[in-house]
Batch of 4 targets.
Target 1
Amino acid sequence: MTTDKPNDFIDRLAKIFAIIFHPLLMPVYGMAIIFSAPTLFAYLPFNVKKLLLLIILINNILLPLSFLPFFIHRNIITSWTIRERKERNIPLIITTILYCATSYIIFRFPIPVFLKSFIFGSAFLALMVTLINFWWKISLHSVGAGAIISLVLILSLKMLTPLDWYLIPAIIAGGLVLSSRLRLNLHNPQQVWIGLLAGFFGLSLFMLLFQKFI
């Protein structure tokens, strides 16, 4: 009986990591990194930062979560965690639409292109994983983790500022996310690693191209 206690504790930690690093929260974490890192973006007016975070909080976290009770009531999903691939389709489509709405709203704001590229890149990743999910189950948590690592690296390179104290925690968090998904048997190694790489390279390419052509 005592051998089960360490396993139960690890499982609880894995569930906590899954909540803390939920993919819906990644855009907020990304904006928080941009606003707090020692670059020029840290000097943006507080009201601008607050407004951007508020828009993302409402459109990309509160609204998607508000649909979950309805989905459960209509038997579109069977649980809050949405484990089955096919059950993800409708929630992902709605989430992607909300991401696109956020991008449309913020595109009109007179803010640095870098910020716009991250928000549009997040919408691109939402669309990408939605399309992938029609055929194959990818780890959304891992996509989010890869995107955050990508953001820190791009921010560091663009601003010519070493951000080791952001990059190291991002990599550690990414490792915890991948480990937690495997520990809970929600994904296999292929799904988490491809998710991580898709998030990293998907956001990197989109942000770099966006900033080049806009």
Target 2
Amino acid sequence: MKTPLQRNPFAVEAWFDFSLTLTFAVPKDELAARLPACLEAETFDERWAFLAVAIVQTRHLRPQGLPAFCGQDFLLAGYRHFVSYRNVEGRRLRGLQIIRSETDRRTMAFFGNLLTPYHYTHKPLKMDILDGVFHATDASNGLHISASAADEKSPLPSGSPFKSWKDARRFCGPLPFTFSHDPIKRRVLIIEGVREQWKPSPMSVHACHIPSLAHFGFSETRLACAFMVRDIPYHWKKGRYERVAPL
């Protein structure tokens, strides 16, 4: 059930130990068909649209201005579509549409669902780093991701639609905005993230079993690229609504 608070009602800040994002290419027409009319799929080569799976270790998440010890530490698995939205001023904003969010902390799932429309569920997520390899797991469904640092000369994943890491970098997330559509009140919730020292580094993916991808029902899902950022501050502005015109 939606509540009036589910709009990111105040600015929030946090520290990211790391954010590992795997980007998957899916048929653009299939993703576009799932979007509300006010959102447009971000595409590449006139064939592909994209969704991201991000594993994020977050520290001291709290309302902006509070001391760090008031914050929450949690591991997040986030699933998002790459989309754009043209605002009332005619400006095109690139961002993400939230599909689902998973966290290893029950308290984060509760408050996340109370204050945002991000669809949090509690999961036994774990992240281990062994000999420079990141291993993300979820014992409840068999999720397993393994990845290690690469460079611009490393090959992209087999079957990736991108020709270079430069092309792929446009889809490494998170993007500056997230969007949530309310069809009843015909409005869009816009939450802007403020990034600092944002320098995503290429990652080589050694194992990638993400059962949730099959539930999304795309006819094809290709691993397109993976990037990581580490040790960065991040904050989100207070959410704001814009009305969208009826069809």
Target 3
Amino acid sequence: MSTLLYVDDEVLIGKAVARWFARRGHTVHLATSIAAAQEAIAHDTPDALFIDVWLGTESGFELMSWIEDSHPALADRVTFVTGELAGETSNGRVWRTLGRPVLQKPFDLSELERYLAEASG
């Protein structure tokens, strides 16, 4: 099975994601900050990364920049999630930023599963 890193300052969402994927046999690491995500990446290379665009006072884009500089092989495994984008994603439209897909909250957990399968390839 796959290993994923879910980075979100909303702890309840992270726990829901972790339960969903753990029940399906995946290993899940949760992080609520850039530092915690960096620590998780240092200990285990994830097959997929889901990064919230806004992490409290930090930005998921900052984490993405660090990934591109320090672990460039992981950059193609990133999917952003956010509640901040305007537009429609319920019809299957997915935003893209920094060349990566962006899912708008609330999302269906099966959407994350699809991106995990694509990232871990």
Target 4
Amino acid sequence: MDKTICTCDLCKNKLCARTVSIFSSLDADQLSEVINLIVHRQYKKGELLLLEEEAVNGLVIINEGQVKAFRTSPEGREQILHIFSEGDFFGERNLLREQNSPYSVEALEETHVCLIDKRDFQVMVRESPDIALKIMEALCEKLDRLENTVETMGARTVDARVSAVLLEFANKYGKPHSKGIMIELPLNREGIANYIGLTRETVSRKMSHLQEDGILEMVGNKKVLLLDRPALEKAAE
């Protein structure tokens, strides 16, 4: 995780900690304590922020950009586990215990991150136990959401999985358009396939079917115009 520290100008004066769910319930004074611990780093597209089994030295907040967390199977196949974008974070499991990273993390585009060193975080928690309790509550909620997502995705049909991931991207990256919602996909077809455990050909075929049904319109390789959200939601059930 060692990287040249950036200036705060790269964060465009945003208080990055405010965008993170585990800090959302903190009051102004408590949030100020967190912000004082933050240092800033940046990574180019394709750079690794973290390697699988590498020690995680703190909490990493995505201030700007996108990264993917992935594992590589013994056969060399990449399995994408998470897409982290602005306001997302990782490394929280190692803040209070020793645990190496269960995955690698790679920048999908130029990415700016904010880092809270593990030792600084532990000092803050010892001095302000109320912060620790609030963070633990928020982490439990995050784990509940992740478990629900895994259970739901595993039980879905292939068609539903493709529709569900497009809805996920619409919620996270979609922008209003005169015809619906323009989605800037964080991954190409192969990346989406690795994310939901399908082949590239299956993802492409299912997306073509959705286009034929008038539910969406593909705009190049990394954009999709969602024309009929209710129909996509039904397909994701």
